[in-house]
Write a sequence for this structure.
């Protein structure tokens, strides 16, 4: 058995998988990875099923150390520098850490969340079929809270095999697609305000919800409705008219009207939107959203087929590095705000 | 029972959920229809539905869009909702102990004053009704009850508290509820129960089901402390009686 030590990690670092479903009727938050495609990419490279538990990292730099044996890892998601001691590595490629080697991750330069998958998955005890951390409910394994410096995870020793890479998909500049409803009729003309508006994500966002900043979306009949169920991507509008997009650590029910819902295929892309970057929403029909869901499922299914053996593939590390440096925009995330455990607007 | 119902509104909730809305208000008949549809879907499962979340006035139906199309599922839900309501024949009744007032219910005396009642009269009015678990939501085990005495209706606090204790029994609007784990709340805190509606190490993990009925009874602080210790070790503490 090898061990992966969290030598130096930021506040938004936690074990996540596909999430915990089936008990939302009891108020149990699903949790799970913010960007499922990135989770599946990292896992596929590490030789795991797509939604095996991995370490989700927020936008901060982090350092891990391998001990007691070799560990195969793969990183996907937000663009950031990856070094193993003095070796520089690209994203989207598996690599084996020798015992004692340090994995040094820079802060996110593009995107917000990265996934560190470990060959064999993370060893832990599932609750409701998931290892995902939900600190409020005391759930998550091997520890029911975000990782802290000094934590270590037991992992399987790396097997003998060659390393793999997955050519990254180009980032999409398209608007974030939504299906209007369930309470778009509470807004009347403000639906147009919402769809025509240019939005940014506030830095006071977290795994429960992303707060949006933009034009004021006014309710026709006030902002209190009788609580009803929420989904990942529900866009609720509290009294100040600034929408909040509910993310995987959401409450299962909520008492603000929901103007629209981000479609499943776009939720990971939305989760990776850095605070401060302008974007727009686009309304699509339920039928179009279903087609997108089918296409997204195909994308996930085809990941293993797209994977290439690094030994037979000229991965241009230098070119990738240059691209990364060229894209090193200022990170707009304020380190102080990604640690909030609860949001004041989230109450029964 | 009404001879005919208005059909529920079918509200898309993204590409993987449908809200079946029976009312926009807190409405006992609507909640009974929600729970009846929920039971029907449990008894006659539709392939592709992954889970359901009953609330006061609507049933949220999560589904897998790869398995079933909205245009096929929606009419099936409408047809099921048109069936005559049968109340659960397996519903359970719980007696839930509550330590009212003092450190356990810091708002009790103020609420009593606001409602022009003595604190004892407030407790008497809160323990009198048979409540129904209308929905469980927000955080694990947070049980919203219907059946509050209308004389205890009170708007929520202006400033929500960011942290209220586990087991809190509170009122807000026309609702009362049992909060299981510590968390934010804008409701008025009347007391605490040692009963854990959610406890991971216990079987069952979740004690209450939507549709269960319950009543509260007052206990003193010493009894609370005793029961709380027992509950911490996995004792249910609440009494179950067939209703």
């Amino acid at each position: 058995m090898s061990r992966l030590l969290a030598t130096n990690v930021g506040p938004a670092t936690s074990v996540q998988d596909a999430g915990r479903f089936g008990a939302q009727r009891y108020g149990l938050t699903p949790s799970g990875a913010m960007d499922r495609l990135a989770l599946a990419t990292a896992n596929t490279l590490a030789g795991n099923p797509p939604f095996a538990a991995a370490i989700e990292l927020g936008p901060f730099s982090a350092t891990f150390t391998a001990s007691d044996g070799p560990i195969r890892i793969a990183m996907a998601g937000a663009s950031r520098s990856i070094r193993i001691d003095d070796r520089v590595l690209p994203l989207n490629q598996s690599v084996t850490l020798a015992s004692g080697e340090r994995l040094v991750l820079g802060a996110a330069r593009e995107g917000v969340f990265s996934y560190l998958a470990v060959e064999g998955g993370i060893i832990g005890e599932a609750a409701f079929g998931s290892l995902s951390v939900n600190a409020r409910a005391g759930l998550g394994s091997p520890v029911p809270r975000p990782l802290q410096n000094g934590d270590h995870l037991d992992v399987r020793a790396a097997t003998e095999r060659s390393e793999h890479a997955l050519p990254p998909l180009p980032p999409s500049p398209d608007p974030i697609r939504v299906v209007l409803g369930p309470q778009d009729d509470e807004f009347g003309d403000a639906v147009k305000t919402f769809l025509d508006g240019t939005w940014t994500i506030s830095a006071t966002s977290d795994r429960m919800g992303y707060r949006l900043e933009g034009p004021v979306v006014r309710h026709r009949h006030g902002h209190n409705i009788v609580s009803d169920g929420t989904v990942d991507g529900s866009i609720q509008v509290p009294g100040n008219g600034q929408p909040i997009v509910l993310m995987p650590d959401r409450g299962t029910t909520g008492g603000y009207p929901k103007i629209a819902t981000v479609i499943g295929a776009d939720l990971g892309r939305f989760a990776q939107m850095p605070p401060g970057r302008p974007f727009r929403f686009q309304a699509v029909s339920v039928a179009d959203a279903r087609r997108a869901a089918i296409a997204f499922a195909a994308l996930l299914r085809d990941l293993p087929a797209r994977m290439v053996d690094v030994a037979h593939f000229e991965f241009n590390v230098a070119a990738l590095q240059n691209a990364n440096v060229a894209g090193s925009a200022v990170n707009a995330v304020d380190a102080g705000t990604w640690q909030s455990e609860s949001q004041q607007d989230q109450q029964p | 029972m009404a001879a005919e119902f208005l059909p529920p509104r079918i509200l898309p909730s993204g590409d993987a959920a449908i809200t079946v809305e029976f009312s926009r208000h807190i409405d006992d008949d609507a909640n009974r229809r929600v729970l009846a549809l929920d039971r029907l879907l449990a008894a006659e499962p539709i392939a592709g539905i992954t889970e359901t979340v009953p609330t006061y006035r609507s049933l949220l139906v999560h589904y897998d869009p790869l398995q079933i199309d909205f245009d096929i599922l929606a009419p099936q839900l409408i047809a099921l909702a048109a069936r005559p309501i049968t109340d659960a024949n397996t519903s359970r009744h719980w007696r839930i102990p509550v330590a009212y007032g003092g450190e356990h219910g810091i708002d009790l005396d103020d609420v009593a004053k606001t409602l022009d009642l003595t604190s004892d009269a407030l407790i008497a009015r809160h323990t009198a009704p048979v409540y129904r678990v209308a929905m469980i939501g927000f955080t694990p085990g947070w049980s919203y009850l219907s059946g509050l005495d209308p004389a205890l209706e009170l708007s929520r606090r202006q400033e929500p508290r960011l942290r209220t204790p586990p087991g809190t029994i509170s009122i807000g609007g026309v609702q009362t509820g049992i909060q299981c784990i510590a968390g934010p709340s804008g409701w008025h805190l009347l007391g605490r129960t040692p009963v854990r509606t959610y406890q991971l190490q216990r079987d069952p993990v979740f004690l209450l089901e939507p549709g269960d009925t319950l009543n509260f009874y007052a206990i003193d602080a010493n009894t609370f402390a005793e029961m709380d210790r027992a509950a911490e070790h996995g004792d249910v503490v609440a009494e179950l009686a067939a209703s």
